[in-house]
């Protein structure tokens, strides 16, 4: 997550310094930061699943894992809505492709 966030800032800074592309740079920075956070959440979910399976497979650890996964899924959905402005399952309504001329 840290590397993704740092690279998002590094790519956005040159665009933010130019007045003509400043607004686009902010939008791109938000989108890239969101993607980095989403990727980090996915990696953390996988790491928690592997840790639970390999280290301590008890009922308490599985229930704790389920709670963590649910919270991270809700965070992922809220980040998706923040980045795209629509729920992930409603994207097809927003993205319209114009027929070729």
UniProtKB/TrEMBL annotation:
Cited InterPro entries: DUF1622 (IPR012427)
Taxonomic superkingdom: Bacteria
Membrane-spanning intervals of the chain: 36-54, 61-79
Record keywords, A-Z: Membrane, Transmembrane, Transmembrane helix
Annotated protein name in UniProt: DUF1622 domain-containing protein
Organism: Cryobacterium algoritolerans
Phylogenetic placement of the source organism: Bacteria, Bacillati, Actinomycetota, Actinomycetes, Micrococcales
